[in-house]
Amino acid sequence: MKKPVFSHHKDYNKFAKAIIEGERPPINELYPSLGSFMERCWSPIPDARPNFEEITQILSDVMLDLSVKDSIAKAFWKKNFPGHIKANWKFFINSLYKEFDKQPPFLSIGVELPNRVADKELQQSSPAQKKKFCQARI
Hints:
The chain is mainly alpha-helical. The chain is built from seven helices and no strands.
C-alpha cells in the first residue's frame, strides 16, 4: 500500500515551512502532461505560473491526454471539440463523417445540425425552449 503524500511530516509548522522552502510531492511519471503543469503551478516565480485562461486550456488538454490514448482520436477531438469534455452526438457524427469526406446519412433526410453558436444558445435556453427545439428536430 502506498504511503500518503507528506506522511513523514508530523508537525504542521515544520510541514508548512517545508512547503514554503519548496518541498513538493513526487510527480507520477505516467502522466507527463499533468506533471509539467503541476511544476509550472509550483514555480517560485509568480509570472512563470499559468494564468486562469492557461489553466483551463492546460487542464482540458491534460484530461484529453489521460482519457484518450489513441493519437488519431486525440487529434480529431482537439481539432473538432477544443476545450470540450463532451460533444453533441449529431455534431460528433457530422465531424467524423467530414473527416472522411462523407455525408452522414441522416443529413439526407433533412435534419440540420446546430452549429456551435446554436449549441451555446440551446444550453442557455429555458426548458420550454429546449423542448421546442428537440420537437422541431424529430
